Amino acid sequence: MLELAAVQGVSVPTPDTQDSPLAIRGLTVSYGQKPAVFSVDMTVQPGAMTAIIGPNGAGKSTLLKAALGIVPMVSGQVTVYGKPLTEQRARVAYVPQRASVDWDFPTRVIDVVLMGLSRQLGLLGRIRARHMQRAADCLRQVGMQDFADRQIGQLSGGQQQRVFLARALAQDADLYLLDEPFAGVDAATEKAIITVLKSLKDAGKTVVVVHHDLATVTDYFDHVYLINTRKVAEGPVAQAFTAESLQAAYGGRLATAQIDQISHALG
Amino acid sequence: MVWDALTLQLGYNATLVAIGATLLGVSAGVTGTFLFLRKRALVSDAISHATLPGVCLAFMVLVALGGDGRNLPGLLLGSAVSAWVGLLCMNWLTRRTRLAEDAAIGAVLSVFFGFGIVLLTIIQTMGAGRQAGLEGFLLGSTAGMLWSDAFVIALGGAATLGLVLVLRRPMTLVAFDPEFAAARGLPVHRIDLAMMGLVMAVTVVGLKIVGLILIVALLIIPAVTARFWSERSERVVLLAGLSGGLAGYLGAALSASAPNLPTGPIIVLVSFGFFAVSLLFAPARGVLAAVLRHLRFQRRVHIRQGLLALAQGQTIYEPLTLRLLRRAGVVRADGVATETGKARAAKALRDEKRWQVVRADLAHEATAALYDGLRDIETVLTRDQIADVDSRIGGPQEVQP
Known about the structure:
The complex is a heterodimer of chains A (267) and B (401). By secondary structure, chain A is an alpha/beta fold. In chain A, 37% of the residues lie in helices and 22% in strands. Chain A is built from twelve helices and ten strands. Chain A has helices at residues 2-6, 60-67, 85-88, 109-115, 118-121, 129-141, 157-170, 187-202, 217-220, 237-240, 243-250, 256-266; strands spanning 23-31, 34-43, 49-53, 75-80, 83-84, 92-95, 175-179, 206-210, 223-228, 230-236. In chain A, helix 4 runs parallel beside helix 7 and helix 7 runs parallel beside helix 8. Chain A is globular, with a radius of gyration of 19 Å. The two termini of chain A are 29 Å apart. In chain A, 45% of the residues are buried. Chain B has 401 residues and is an all-alpha fold. Chain B is 73% helix and 0% strand. Chain B contains 18 helices and no strands. In chain B, helix 11 (211-227) packs parallel to helix 13. Chain B starts with a helix and ends in an 8-residue tail after the last helix. The model of chain B has no long low-confidence stretch (mean pLDDT 89). Classes of the chains: A alpha/beta (267), B mainly alpha (401). The A-B interface holds A 65, 68-70, 86, 89, 92, 94, 96, 100-102, 105-108, 111-112, 115, 118-119, 121, 123-124, 151, 156, 167, 177, 186-188 and B 37, 39, 165-167, 169-170, 172-173, 175-180, 182-185, 227, 230-233, 235-236, 365-366, 369.
């Protein structure tokens, strides 16, 4: 593990944690005795689209979940826009992995999107026309407006993913965290999702995505964060997404041919 | 007699029981739905069995203090305390040890119930006469129900319903997507505990009428019944309350209409009746609907395959296919295609070729996903698109059935 840290060649001047939408310091998370994420720092750049990449079991999803307080951390500090997460919940939207949900649950597409408005609605607030309007708008953004009344189990995997994204959009947050949104989705969905994410970025929002497809990193993202239990590299794609850092993160798990291909693509 | 019972004409006790059972049914149905949606239905079984030691201990304390051992609020308070202890044990076992929830449920259920039975036996050998009716908490006993008992049940049921109303949104959110709920800052663990606390309240309230062994049925069956009729959680909750309340009312009335019919078990059976009807006849999720859907699908597959076989000049041996084709007027009794049959067969083959083009073309990706071998191409493509596809296939441009 220590020699991995040595190849961190890339270190970008990090802004003060005050300005970062999501700053993580010394985060360790463990399921049982073996750390899934060990002593990790992360400083998300405001207004950027960042990909978190790394091999299976490298702690990509765990990093996000710990940052959101979904799994307990053993040690570490997380600040969101310079303040503790608990004070900033409303500014953070999360899109969990599709597999985390029971798709036979009795709920319609529009109801799922309305869940994104739970803060505005409160415990007893009535769902009013403007709430429905907002939910319908979010569905339109992901191209799912015709499915509003379907039970969610009747959708394809890609469509379900888009509904999850619409629910996050309804929250109108500043920081969007997505866990593997492109895993197992069709090409139409991938295109729809990336379009929405890019428009979020254009609106000045910050987007962090756990990503598995190395081939699309350069097309989709401007920042990248490589992790394999420990942080391997962090920075703009051109500087941090290199053959060396990939080799360091994936070790033998990535074929040399793949790495050559990527470094070739990067020029 | 039954009519008298249904219109609450059978006297004071029967009326009290019917009102109490209705309220209990509504609150159990509504509360149980959230447990069912959270996939924790069996937790209610452990909670209900864990009430028994509390009932017995409360009785002993009441008697030792020189009071009436059958004081209902006192007994219910005792049962609530021991059910809460059972709940915490189960929660601790699941969260802090490697035991899975089903094992924790089994452990808590059997140990608490066993302990309760021991205490019950001790009480029965204690001072005679005063223990009367304690074993009634096992299966419920409504014979000597007092106005004050009914009042306690009504109050408890109403309070539970009110709390469910307040907590319905967080409970639904946690049941559907606990990770998202946690990310929104909801205290998932405490909401779960609150939900189980409400279930406990219903259980305690229901001890007098249906007893601790059968209360599970009132918590789960209405929820499962309601699920057959709606795809929306809030409607499932309402329908579960309705079916639970109706079962409580009808069950209580029926049991009052004849001597020696136990109230609790009859309520459970009525509730099961609603479940059975829903299971068979619910329009979208029922068994009958599923069978009909499958038959219709099978018929379409056979006809389509038959048409394609005809178009390619193959002989059809499958008797079902032949029968369906004959009935559709595609082939004559001797198996030879009619004029319409030939046209339809040619159209089917043409459609199949068109689908091939569509599926090979990335531009038609969304359409291609709809391919199931059965759909007419006109239902997914416009005339212009079909003409474009046809121009790529070549051959005759127009094939009409």
